[in-house]
Amino acid sequence: MPELPEVETTRLGVRPHVIGKPIVRVLVRESRLRWPVSPELPQMLTGNIISDVARRGKYLLFLTECGRMMVHLGMSGSLRITDINKVPRKHDHIDICFVDGNILRFHDPRRFGSVLWLPGESGHELIDNLGPEPLEDDFDGDHLYRLSQSRRTAVKTFIMNSRIVVGVGNIYANEALFLSGIRPDRAAGRISRERYRRLSDDIKAVLGKAIESGGTTLRDFVREDGSPGYFSQQLNVYGRGGETCVRCSQKLTESRLGNRSTVYCSRCQR
DNA sequence: CGCTGACCCTGACGGC
DNA sequence: TGCCGTCAGGGTCAGC
After folding, report:
1. Is A3 a catalytic residue?
2. Where do the domains of chain A lie?
3. Which of A58, A80, A156, A195 is catalytic?
4. Is pTM beyond 0.90 here?
5. Which CATH number fits the domain A141-264, given the four candidates 1.10.8.50, 3.40.50.720, 3.10.310.40, 1.10.10.10?
6. CATH T-level fold of A4-128
7. Which strand B nucleotides have any atom less than 7 A from protein CB atoms?
8. What is the pLDDT of residue A167?
9. How far is it, in rounded angstroms, from Cα A173 to Cα A263?
10. Does the structure show a pLDDT above 80 at A194?
11. Catalytic annotation present for A119
């Protein structure tokens, strides 16, 4: 489900509802996620206060005085703000209950997500070796060009690698490559510095616009209040295999790269 | 070291 | 109507 824009939409949505209010109860109904939910999580959060909600790549970090809760939404996860009168649905795995009756509720049918407790200021292997944030200035075409040298993997696989750059998932990788006119299966090491400059600009542009639209809802992504994101209306290629290219009207090609569905225009993308 | 494919899990959908 | 195969926005890991 969530790529960077959906995670950022979630962060902005939940933030005002969870900051500065004592947590009175933490309920873990299902701890078997991608990794087991940290057993100390309820104890560490209860009586505690969240001071801010940050994001690193697709990880959300809920900051407190004694440590951080790190949440990943996996493929089907979502966080919603609800209240004690709302009966939990199937797959509502974790409730974080605040003193005012509001609840931060983690929902994840496929259980590929994770909820971990990082004590104190400690880092974690999952976030310590990530590439730059795509919307920050240290991510640019030169960065992509430098790391791509002598790499034979497909450029689409390359930009989806979180050690290269975080937050670019399957939807936005397809979209950015279309905007840049680059074939997804082109070897990463056989692309010019100039074209990587264009690609990094297009990655920033497509992620930025998706955040403005509240993310992309295809199946299960919902915002903190349960509403969908609207960026799917602006998708040029993702989910449009066999349909016509918006630029040249040729039929879009659909294939698989690294086991992920890949759509492009063989005329506009070289 | 880089790359590929299997795998974790549930649910929706299309074909028969 | 039901059964079966396929696919889905994530990432890790073993093996070559």
Report:
1. yes
2. 4-128, 141-264
3. A58
4. yes
5. 1.10.8.50
6. N-terminal domain of MutM-like DNA repair proteins (3.20.190)
7. 2-12
8. 95
9. 10
10. yes
11. no
Name the active-site residue from A15, A56, A197, A260.
A260
pLDDT of residue A1 exceeding 70, the answer is no
Tokens of A57: 């790549």
A163 touches strand C (CB under 7 A): no
Strand C positions closer than 7 A to protein CB: 7-12
